């Protein structure tokens, strides 16, 4: 009998091992304004961390057939071609990979002038390294390196605090180095109060139960849209209790109880990464490209900001209607060429609906009208069809 | 086990894989970037990539195949030959026999990995230039550091096979027909990889023993990403404990008739 019981005991112990008890996180209570002030006053200059991104948007998923399958970076076009400015079938399969597959990104920061972002793919990696005014993009699958010089060599002073203001519906970019000079004149507290006043009409801001992200205690700032006309149910931002650094952004679609989109740190260390991390020389044998004009694509390709990706390809001529959560972004007729509408990659992604083809997810909808116009927003499909019909 | 000709034949076949890759690439002057198995296009620049290409090829198929044969044969083979009861007649005990058989299988896992790593390194050194090695992150390290990384990858692959070896040992205690145990073990390895490829079963993936098999690429990043090594080791240890215990439960209560 003991011989038969032993496997059961060990199996139970092994299964129970990963299930960690979720202890309550004790932190001094804070109001939303105080948490926002904490974020605004945050000046994290040095960190190395791992970001995990996952999304369950209800899109069709394809079997993952290893390193060569669509969605992994081996199908990506060479950065030097600049093909990312137009929609192509390869782009669409890449975009689909962004939307459906989980990603792991490692981030290294040291001051405002040194950044490195590594997108960890299967058997491959895409890197973006900034050291001073030099930016290198490296894609290990294609073995190509692209060097860019920043057009404006305005080096922010090392001691200037980095300010990040969380805005609803945008994911904060922890690797962002955009310092807003105007912000420094205000204190974090007034900035937070102003922000709360601005968003109050459209959004209910509250502080949820404290959480733990990457082993750090964090406040959970919850933004709930006041309108029911949007697909977004809740956006919660976990804010590090010590430094005020946003650690995790979770977007939950209306009517869902599990996160639809999540981007957050799984590991975080606030010490400076070794200086060699930011020094890059292309490896021997790599194809090196040095485009004359800076191509904004490189940041685009590694940016975890998937929401903006569909619009990023047609940056000009895009207009927005509506306000707040129900904003609809429109690209004019002819944005999607007719040849592309018929392509199998697009047909796989889109479904025919009255008034065009739609990409329908639990969090946002995209409508491609028959004339090639594109409508997108975190709103029900019917609202997009109305907007298209009103044209 | 190492006195059997079959074991040496399997190790020889495994060692031939990197050699074949190296010779084929040498004769055809390599492929285009981004084509074929990972790292294949880098071989002409640096011979050490022969090892990595061979490991990418061997991990999903050839390693499970050979480990399945050895593990499936461990107990059932003795039973099939009719020697099991003689082994147990000696005052050694069933637990000890089980342990010895598992250690033997683990030694084979180590030998199989070592065969590919050593043959690949040798073939790469002979046929291709070796110098500074670019990692996946684009950073360049010298040949010795790279060889260290490759040994780490070898250790990763060895650890990856331990779970499958334990499963094979358990299956081997269920039957007196060694071929059946081998086939079942190999089928399980393939089934686990098929399940791992279906996104609809994402909740199951972290529990599959094959889930981290190809995660050794994380050891080739700069700095090294240890998460997958740790996850893999914990997972394989879990499989080792569960299936080791199952094998113990089965083998100590079994009537040995052959």
Automatic annotation (TrEMBL), chain A:
Region called Disordered, residue ranges: 58-83, 148-182
InterPro entries: LolA/LolB/LppX, Sporulation_related
Origin superkingdom: Bacteria
Protein species of origin: Arthrobacter livingstonensis
Record keywords, A-Z: Signal
Low complexity composition-biased segments: 58-82, 163-173
Protein name: DUF2092 domain-containing protein
Signal peptide start-end: 1-23
Automatic annotation (TrEMBL), chain B:
Entry's Gene Ontology molecular function annotations: ABC-type transporter activity
Membrane spanning residue stretches: 48-71, 102-130, 150-170, 177-195, 232-251
Pfam families: ABC2_membrane_2
Keywords tagged on the record: Membrane, Transmembrane, Transmembrane helix
GO terms under cellular component: plasma membrane
Designated name of the protein: ABC transporter permease
Classification lineage: Bacteria, Bacillati, Actinomycetota, Actinomycetes, Micrococcales
